[in-house]
Amino acid sequence: MSLGGKKKKGKNFLATEIDRMLCLVEDQLPFVSEPWVGIASAYNDQLRSGWSARDGDSL
Description:
Layout (H helix, E strand, L loop, with lengths): L14 H14 L6 H11 L14
């Protein structure tokens, strides 16, 4: 829980994870069918130690 006892929202991405994700999204533009599944697959292919695997829904 965060300060004030409120539940945190979001998926707890690190700044470096966000940078990597934005690069992958940029490479996929313009989107075609099922874009987030492909991006999740590319993201998980070279996952760094300590990073959580992601699926299309979590992105």
